[in-house]
Amino acid sequence: MTTPSLVGRSGELGVLADLIDQSADHGSAIVVLGEPGIGKSSLLHAAAARARCAGLQVLEITGVESETRLPFAGLHQLLRPILAATDQLSLTQRRALLSAFGIEDGPPPEPFLIALAALNLLTEAASGRAVAVVADDIQWLDQATHEALAFIARRIERDPIVVIAAARVGYDMPFLMSGLRELTVVGLDDAASQAVLASHAADLDSAGQARILREALGNPLALVELPAALRTRQRFGTEIQPDFIPLTDRLERAFASRIRELPTLTRDAVLVVAVDDEDELPEIISATGVLAGRDVGVDVLDGAAGAGLLRFDEQRVRLRHPLVRSGILQAESPRRRQQANAALAAVLADQPYRRTWHRAHAIVGPDDDVADELETSHLVALRSGSVDSAIWALERSAQLTADSATRGRRLLLAAEHAFGLGRADIVDQLLAAAQRTALSNLDRARMEWLREIFNDGVPGDAVRVFEMCDVASRSALAGDNDLALNLLLGAALRCWWADAGEQARGRVVSVTEQVRAAENDARYVAALALAEPVSRARAVDELLGRVVLETVTDANALRLLGMAAHAIGDPVRSVDFLDRAETRMREQGRLALLSHVLTMQILDRLELGDWQRAAAAVEEGQRVAHQTGQPIWDTGTLVLGAITVALRGDNEKAQSIAAEAEQAAGGRGLNDLLACVQLARGFGWVTSGHYAEAYHALRRLFDPDDICHHATERFHGIAFLAEAAIHAGRVDDARRVLRALERDARTTPAATLHVHLAYARAVLADDEHAEKLFRAALGADLMRWPWAKARLELAYGSWLRRQRRVAESRMPLRSAQTTFDLIGAGWWAGQARAELRAAGERVRLQGPTAQDTLSAQELQIAHLAAEGLSNRQIGQRLYLSPRTVGSHLYRIFPKLDITSRAQLGPRLDLV
Fold first, then answer.
1. CATH class name, domain 852-907
2. Are 879 and 591 in contact (CB under 8 A)?
């Protein structure tokens, strides 16, 4: 059996057929784009038929305009045929998916966890035979389904799954921003248009056919539908409007003309079908009876089916094409649409969520009863993972609310949820509406926070920091510590990203310390640390010391505690908190915050010698930040990636990435990111032997008047500044920098500062005092600091050799080389070998390590597999399908010259 033939579409059919035929070898996704009626649906029907003939399991979904606010309605429709296989999912994913569909009760699931569950359900289905997902009119899918479908499409490259989706042009949607292949469908040429018209308008005279060809402009649906519209108008002595109107309007007018021919009861039934968010036949017949005021039977649909507007069977009713729905709704008055929604609400007594939804469409307002029900129902949407639907419910609830203050509160609540989506445009729109209401004092404070929350990092805006602190102080006095801490954390973040000055920082600290009752709250700790990471470091260190890591279960609290630890220069605590936060966020599917956790841990993992996980965090963090639309974190991961590359000795690449990151961060004057840019540049110049350039780049970090200065990020550059100073002849200047840092060291317990200072003191000392300082530095507790210890050993061994104490130099140099090899610091290991050779030791050439051979993601997968995790467990952790994990392992084994998982541990030096 071959692909169904469509006039004039051989090229498009060939593209889709190739994707289907290749699905057994690899997955793919494509978006079919075109204007309404251009033939997208026909192409998808043909593709589905081709897939079935090829033995694929076909799962179909069609976006419905009235369902765009129903959370996961489309995803449920898509997966319904394979839901029995949810038993194969992990318990967490199964509960997330089924609770999103309302099949089981469960905690509010995270959208990304639901998307991962859907992906794994599809890959499970595809393990038996390839799967074709055919999605029509995706511009009308609910937002949650849209994002899930985009998530799936980006991750099926190694699975026997093909996704073919059709969308109208002119819509912004996640699926279209996923970088997928696009197939644009244009109008038929003249010959094909005449062929289509001939089969539908043989009874029309040549003038009528010419007019239709002229107005259809190659649009297949118009070529099919306009002849019927023309006949209808001619029958009643009218003509099609001669003046030009947009094509979509012409098509919807054509549909409307046919709807008006239907009997009254059938027209009632068709209107109910158009406004219903489900396609259940009994429900539609019952609601039609309510709308008509009399009992009706299934035969009420016969006329609409005969007119080709819909199809129905014993259970379901489906409109022939989404434009039919548009035509129906356009043909009816607002009053009639409200009556149809009221009729549906009347038959949905046992479904309160949907009943409220249709009641909200059935009235103009105000109606406080419906408004209250809508506010309650927004929680149902949140539990289903559809924040978009929750926002609409709250906004509509506000519209129906009589009391001005209550209306404003509901708008602000909607704005909070819109912030969670990262939609600054919706937040601004809702705040503008809320500002016109009689807000309470606390709600006005909440508005201040919401106005601020998208503006972290505006440089030098001390005035705004003071304003936020004043509002936070009033909120705390009113008893709303939760709002006060949100505002203070926002103000502190301003001070962290771009220094707002000593007075502004001090104000954040003083107001935060007034909220004493909340000092165990992670936001309290983070606000102190971010605002004054040096002067308040001891207080923050004490607060962090009270925390028993194993007792903290809230992922966001762990994230903020990790942020606080990083801010005060405590990488050991930071990675411990962030590691636990990462685990929780992966379990919950909270990808947006996961990108923060991944990015924040990179620099601290580099400090502690965990270079493998740092590289994996760079790769995944940037991908997730980009996917979740968080440019500041995307840029942050970019510059930290430059630091990682620089430390590995690739200066050219490091300088290129640093320049790209500087351009992104410089426009907003983000001191934190600009400091990291200079770290990347300095590290890169050191590893390439350009010490003067390295010193110049790093020296800027220690100039308080330089935009690249940052209170604690500069600590990461101290050791490198000292090393560059020796080779660049800048020792005296570097010692002046050290004296200033010694004053900070008496104030703060920052481990990063003290470890780097110990190194700098030793390498900058004269020969008379150097050995004592080297021994003191190496005598510190560096159990969690192998990278720092190895660098000290390299510097000490090199100093011993220059002092002609060659035999003594070999032991620290050997130790340094071993550590560098283990953590993947190849360039530094090469320096240690060179020193050993100069010390007279024969050094065997080192073959490529696993770190040299594998990409960051491959290395991450290899380590998880070596720990005994299955492909499914690895996929759940990294948001990949099990088949994708298997494909990675298939490539990893030959790269490592092994043949089984059991050999991974020894090859990765894990046993």
1. mainly alpha
2. yes
CB 649 within 8 A of CB 826: yes
Distance from C-alpha of 853 to C-alpha of 702, rounded to nearest angstrom:
37
Q: Is 70 helix (H, G, I), strand (E, B) or coil?
A: coil
Q: Enumerate residues 6+ apart whose C-beta is below 8 A from 473.
A: 484, 511, 514
SS (H, E, C) 845-868: CCCCCHHHHCCHHHHHHHHHHHCC
Closest among 669, 629, 660 to 420, alpha carbons compared: 629
* Nearest CA among 483, 481, 482, 507 for reference residue 494: 507
Q: Which of 409, 400, 401 is nearest to 361 (CA)?
A: 400
Q: What 3 state SS string does 454-481 have?
A: CCCCCCCCHHHHHHHHHHHHHHHHCCCH
What pLDDT digit, counting tens, does each position of 168-225 carry? 876 767 777 777 889 998 888 888 888 888 777 766 666 667 777 776 777 787 787 7
Rounded to whole angstroms, the Cα distance separating 128 from 110 reads 29
693-702 per-position pLDDT tens digit: 999 999 999 9
Assigned CATH for 264-347: 1.10.10
Token look-up 């065997």 returns 844
* Amino acid making up residue 176: L
User: In this predicted model, what pLDDT tens digit does every residue of 775-829 receive, in sequence order?
Assistant: 999 999 999 999 999 999 999 999 999 999 999 999 999 999 999 998 989 899 9
Number of C-beta neighbours around residue 531 at 10 A: 31
With residues binned 3-state (H G I as helix, E B as strand, rest as coil), the percentages for the chain, rounded to 5, are 70, 5, 25
| Pairwise CA distance, residues 829 & 68, whole Å | 57
Secondary structure (3-state) at 259? helix
Is the Cβ–Cβ distance between 850 and 819 less than 8 Å?
Answer: no
Best CATH choice for the domain 10-184 from the list 3.30.420.10, 3.40.50.300, 3.30.930.10, 3.40.50.10260: 3.40.50.300
CB atoms within 10 A of CB 460: 15
CATH 3.40.30.10 fits 533-760, yes or no: no
852-907: same fold as 264-347? yes
Q: Give me the phi and psi of 855, to 5 degrees please.
A: -70, 170
Q: What is the pLDDT of residue 760?
A: 97
Structure tokens at 132: 């074709």
Q: Walk across the sheet containing 131-136 and list its strands.
A: 57-62, 131-136, 161-168, 28-34, 181-184
Q: Binning pLDDT at 50, 70 and 90, where does residue 586 land?
A: confident
Number of C-beta neighbours around residue 584 at 10 A:
20
| Alpha-carbon distances of 564 from 93, 420, 698, 716, rounded to whole Å | 31, 22, 24, 16
Answer with the residue of higher pLDDT: 676 or 498.
Answer: 676
More confident residue, 321 or 462: 462
DSSP state of 81: G
C-alpha distances in Å from residue 420, one per residue of 111, 157, 503, 768: 12, 30, 31, 59
Mean pLDDT of 760-773: 96
Nearest to 725 by CA among 705, 687, 698: 698
**Three-state secondary structure call for residue 832:** helix
Least confident of 133-142, 437-446, 457-466: 457-466
User: HEC string of 498-540?
Assistant: CCCCHHHHHHHHHHHHHCHHHCCCHHHHHHHHHHCCCCCHHHH
Structure tokens at 153: 């499409």
What angle, 0 to 180 degrees and rounded to 10, lies between the N-to-C axes of helices 882-896 and 111-126?
Answer: 70
The one-letter amino acid at 619 = E
Give the whole-angstrom CA distance, residue 648 versus residue 654.
10
Domain ranges of the chain: 10-184, 190-259, 264-347, 533-760, 765-846, 852-907
Report d(CA 384, CA 716) in Å as an integer: 44
Output the pTM of the full model. Answer: 0.73
